[in-house]
Amino acid sequence: MAANRRPTLADVAREVGVSAKTVSRVLNEDGPASAQTREQVLAAVAKLGFQPNLMARNIRVGGPDTTIGLVIPDLANPFFGAVARSIEDTVRDRGLTLLMGSSADEPDRERALTDKFLARRVSILIVVPSVGADHAHLKSHRTAGLPVVFLDRPGVGLVTDNIVSSNRAGAHDGIAHLVAHGHRRIGFVGDLPPKLYTRRERLAGYRSALQEADIPHDRALVTNAHDQRGAEAATARLLALPDPPTALFAGNNIMALGIVAELARSARKDVAVVAFDDIALAEALEPALSVVAQDPEELGRTAATTALARLDGDRSRARTITVPTRLIVRGSGELPVTAPQEA
Amino acid sequence: MAANRRPTLADVAREVGVSAKTVSRVLNEDGPASAQTREQVLAAVAKLGFQPNLMARNIRVGGPDTTIGLVIPDLANPFFGAVARSIEDTVRDRGLTLLMGSSADEPDRERALTDKFLARRVSILIVVPSVGADHAHLKSHRTAGLPVVFLDRPGVGLVTDNIVSSNRAGAHDGIAHLVAHGHRRIGFVGDLPPKLYTRRERLAGYRSALQEADIPHDRALVTNAHDQRGAEAATARLLALPDPPTALFAGNNIMALGIVAELARSARKDVAVVAFDDIALAEALEPALSVVAQDPEELGRTAATTALARLDGDRSRARTITVPTRLIVRGSGELPVTAPQEA
DNA sequence: CTGAAAGCGCTAACAT
DNA sequence: ATGTTAGCGCTTTCAG
């Protein structure tokens, strides 16, 4: 019952009466081997339940491990879950296994994860950078041939491939949609911190769309939140303003949940909404939620294929690839402008 | 620009002019070291950007790797995402890193993943078993001391710890809630395949609740689907029945999405619904969705703590731990029974 | 306090 | 077709 040592190549070799190298050969289909020994080796492997120690192999071969390191803010966030699955699907036939972790958008945790991944000699590193994280320490690894790709946001301190959504244009289109339906007071509920790349870009799109429509920017209409509860509170604050917005824009999927939940609780169906990032059941809400949909599958696939190309020797200049977003009009953005209610 | 070899312990040792072992000592805070050498070593480590090769270390030390292998059906499913994050949170301060992959509920993919994890000598293996998968091959590993935990569903062919939700009792309570509000024709939209443990258990709860109320079981009211689109179609079929159900029960979160989407599309607000597993925005729907909520955090935490206890030497009998579900009444289950509409 | 030698499990490079 | 030797990067063991 005690921790029995797992069988090794040598054990198998002894069992059959051949050398370790011969066993290695049949298992890796390296070099020739008589049908006879091949049979015997396979039988012994099955009998002993031998499973080659991949770490030992990697040590000897010297190359990177057949793993891909992935750092995302939160494993439980459906958006990043979809991204992760897309990456997994893309690298699976290359035999790469996913090593992953949540950074909680904290630079220290991100660093702890990347350090562990590097110590494991991952083949590829894909990171959603946390605000405030510096990536200069990755430079030597990249120079040494490790593909490093930043996802969703550009990394800081390292020039490498960045895969991002068309945040600015997407937000612009969403706001323009609201403006086209007569809205002039549009609240922005963005995630935190304000320095977050995606938030900045989406806010920039918001402002440019307003500017094009000659609508003055009102700072009172821009709020932030950390999570869904916070977004609910922010929504309530906006609607309680003396001159409240007639429409709201959600800066990401979590903010969208908060806005929708708060509007439902307060039974406000007169507030137009457009959300950045699609959410489940958007079409089942009343009114159905119009969104600027990101494409998590394409983000993941692009990040993975870019990294694999680097792994295969692509030494071209670092690229920033922008994955388009798509405005999906479902109704919530086309609500008529109503007179502000009394607080 | 070519693949520069990463610095090794020996490189650091040479740089400082000490032996490799001394560097090792400093880095692992093993044995003593003069403040002088310690300084120098640390400086050289920083200068060369040395990062110890964890695989080499593990080879030598012989113990399991500081990774935890996790197999779930789908990384993009928010339920399993929440479970995964909970596991991660629980094992983080033990220094374990997550190695994970999606099985897509296919035994072959599950096996490929577990084999890879075993080849990497994971410290712990947590698996959501796919239907049709056999786990006898894990027996020797478990005997050798590897903690193996099955999550969400029991595994087949291996006696070990199982962590599951109270599927049967939860479904029973959900159905009883509908019955209490007068419903006698209740449709069941379950996931596939029919042999899936969670589906079977939840269907059993459904049937027992009907039986208690002396409601005859009608097979025509039990349907299945693979995904949200399928659940939408199944919902439409049920409602088109000559004697259609007045209430629907969703067998899992994905089925719930399908039911809600289809009811919204067909503007049927007269159909009562209870879903197994909570979903985002359940409270913002109209009517708000009543659910039998699972506790993914507790499922993950329990699986992880159980496995860690085994790792720490717990040799007690294999346990099956049932994590309670909770009926959350929000409105959709309390709709009045209406006369069936014409098809 | 530090170092030299041996060896973890595996494979590259040369034998035979 | 198979075996031997050496060595990947690290730590254990035993000396100093």
Question: On the 0-100 scale, what is the average pLDDT of chain A?
Answer: 95
Strand proportion of chain A, as a percent range, falls in 15-25%
CATH homology superfamily name of the largest domain in chain A: Response regulator
Order of helices and strands of chain A: HHHHEHEHEHEEHEHEHEHEEHEE
pLDDT < 50 stretches of chain A: none
Largest interface summary: A-B, 62 and 62 residues
CATH class of the largest domain in chain A: Alpha Beta
Q: Helical proportion of chain A?
A: 40-55%
Termini separation of chain A comes to 71 Å
Radius of gyration of chain A: 26 Å
* Fold-level CATH name of the largest domain in chain A: Rossmann fold
Shape estimate of chain A: elongated
Determine the structural class of chain A based on helices, strands and strand pairing.
Answer: alpha/beta
Description:
- The structure is a homodimer of 343-residue chains.
- The first copy, chain A, has 343 residues and is α/β, with parallel strands linked by helices.
- Chain A folds into 3 domains: 1-63, 434 Repressor (Amino-terminal Domain) (Orthogonal Bundle), CATH 1.10.260; 67-165 and 296-323, 3-Layer(aba) Sandwich (Rossmann fold), CATH 3.40.50.2300; 167-294 and 327-334, Response regulator (Rossmann fold, 3-Layer(aba) Sandwich).
- In chain A, 41% of the residues lie in helices and 16% in strands.
- Chain A contains 12 helices and 12 strands.
- The first copy, chain A, has helices at residues 9-16, 20-28, 35-48, 54-61, 78-91, 107-119, 139-143, 167-180, 197-212, 228-239, 253-265, 296-311, and strands spanning 67-72, 97-102, 124-127, 148-151, 161-165, 186-191, 222-225, 247-250, 272-276, 290-293, 320-323, 326-328.
- The first copy, chain A, has a 6-stranded parallel sheet, sandwiched between helices.
- In chain A, helix 5 runs parallel beside helix 12.
- The longest helix of chain A is centred in the middle third of the chain and has 16 residues, at 197-212.
- The model of chain A has no long low-confidence stretch (mean pLDDT 95).
- Chains A and B meet through helix 4, helix 5, strand 2, helix 6 and helix 7 of A and helix 4, helix 5, strand 2, helix 6 and helix 7 of B.
- Strand 2 (97-102) of chain A pairs antiparallel with strand 2 of chain B, so a sheet runs across the interface.
- Chain A binds a DNA duplex (16 and 16 nucleotides) through helix 2 and helix 4.
